[in-house]
């Protein structure tokens, strides 16, 4: 590596054993005991490719670190107890009121501990950031095909992180025991009671008797500060180890192939960028904690099971099952002396589990349909997997509509519309919306594929309008730069569905190996999966396209070197001294 | 891991890269142009630019240090308790501590990233990938080791030992689950004359009994029918939570919360001829005053948004709507059952009382509800 010109403040040669420096001495001491040099010689200069979208998971990682740090701070003052006390702190409006110790200590943190409110707000904002960045990271991974072999298990770990992060958020915002969080716990009790057979027992065990009891806050506290964080830490460690082992995926481009990974070494560049980014995430969280009020628990008052605030809503990541709950028709069955609450069970207990299982299985479903068993390290552009992209957009649409339904009261107030009609609309929209989104996205992707092919075959539009001798007008196209053309074509052709075994037999009627009973379904799905996709040009098409372009170029050769040859846009000729409209 | 990555795959016999593109589906239309040429940055070639960048980075780190000092200063300057709503409602302490902390952190972050971008070597390097799986030889050796281990353990030959071990280990997990049974009293242990008894105990019961007064929820004062005008709604509670404790003391703590979560009611007055009485409920109203459980039959939120012209009561949690003029039947939303109705009467002193307890469990549905 050529470092001759790198800023002279950097040394140009690596530290050697001949002349041990202080770093070498410490490293030697450590290696004598830990033997880490074998790992270090490889991993210290590990290559990470650069792309803005690879930063999304990093936001999740660093916001988790912020959560751990601010969370430890909060536990120093928070009292996870439902014992009744009379509030006697600085907040006038609640002084003298009976409340739980949990709520009183939340108020104490907010009003009597310097920096306490800041830590509380940073903790809550970091939690939002944690869940949001995990979701966006998940979308990035899915849309680019980074979940494919060999990374399926890391996808599964990521999904577990997402659901655990969501539960961690719920247990966290239930702790202050204010009116809003208590209302959330009250609803959770209703959800649990709707479980068939065991619901009532689960509720009594969880709450230590009848709702609300006096056990739920200390129990949620243990789950929130010990159980789930422990699981999260272990899974994050596994997630990162697999990331290091698999090496990061990269976008295709000149010099970037399935066999290599191109980027900056971990030490120093990536460590500096990632480390610096931690401070930026932390700093932005601090700024949000300073400027943006979140969960002002003092406004709601202590939890009272006979009171409620209008517009009660969970944190946003819990909004979509809440939306499903809101638009579900009120179905309940009373049969053989028992009650089955479909109206609660289906949207809150069944739907999230089904959606989560679908999410978890997506890599395996995708691989089963495509039959692709190769390893993939180059990312795919979303447009080059139209069905996959459309599937996720459909799921996103469904999520978004459920989420919007969770705010149907807010929508009704804001738009001055009837909440009944919004609810009826949403019932249909959550089913029709995803279908529309699927079709539009798929066709959109295919159009983009065609546009890519068009550019490859006929060049890019220069914006130069040519007038022929006959008086006809045409726009001048120029061939893409070689590196761009290479990048655009560095993708696989889709397998030809016709060549695939159908109904368990191939064209010669020989049963496909291991096809099984599902072979027919798989064949149909695979045909649909690839149907209408535009393939990159064949060499013949490309040759013909180039020939055509050359011919056109000859006709237009007269302008080359002149102001209007179009090359001023691709940097092939300089324009400083040119007056484009000079003559 | 590191041992594995030390191996250069090409050197290993019979170790095929499984990520080599399948020639049937992939073809290179263009030759790989290779990595683009590296361009030196101004800071690499211009000593002036380099020194400027150094100064920039050092300034950023310096600003961070200043912010840390400001953090300490504002910690000791502002008292959070007294001025929490100063400075545009942000609270002086929260605002200054937060902004100083943000500055202290952000300047470090920006400084480090500036350092990485301007002064650290910026040449991309190439590393070769290896298949995630081990080589065939390694796999065979691992499999052999596994089989040898299993063989030597004798587990495969001794089904009695194997099966009894698996059953015992599977069963021992029960010891972790069983103690959870004592997390709380069971539904059938809570209630009158049962192991856990307190006023209103039991999921199917409330504290309401025949003759108990309906009182205002905050003050606990009883209500006369004349206190309500048509269209009024009063949030009521059973008088028992104010005098149901030992020696007529108010209920406290858990028992109070449990009873509020089950006993809360709404009392509304409407034109008597607007009421459609349920079957057998003809005498449950007093002069157009009716009383229903306040706890939503959906998931248990207390309901309180009343629209007097339509007599509709809306739950703010999930928008279930009940028609109080028609036995509180569900007219909209996800709830499946009407709100339980409390039969009202008037005692000799002229206050509203319940003439009977609720005739069904209040609150969200549960399996054994029937």
TrEMBL record, chain A:
Location (main, coarse): membrane
Membrane-crossing segments per the record: 52-78, 125-143, 155-175, 221-245, 276-298, 344-369, 390-415, 421-441
Membrane topology, record value: Multi-pass membrane protein
Region annotation Disordered: where it falls in the sequence: 491-517
UniProt-listed InterPro entries: Cyt_b/b6_C, Cyt_b/b6_N, Cytb/b6-like_sf, Di-haem_cyt_TM
Keywords from the named record: Electron transport, Heme, Iron, Membrane, Metal-binding, Transmembrane, Transmembrane helix, Transport
Record's catalysed reaction(s): a quinol + 2 Fe(III)-[cytochrome c](out) = a quinone + 2 Fe(II)-[cytochrome c](out) + 2 H(+)(out)
SUPFAM superfamilies linked: Transmembrane di-heme cytochromes
Annotated ranges, domain Cytochrome b/b6 N-terminal region profile: 26-252
Cofactor: heme
Location of the protein in the cell: Membrane
UniProt EC number: 7.1.1.8
Annotated ranges, domain Cytochrome b/b6 C-terminal region profile: 253-447
Protein name (database record): Cytochrome bc1 complex cytochrome b subunit
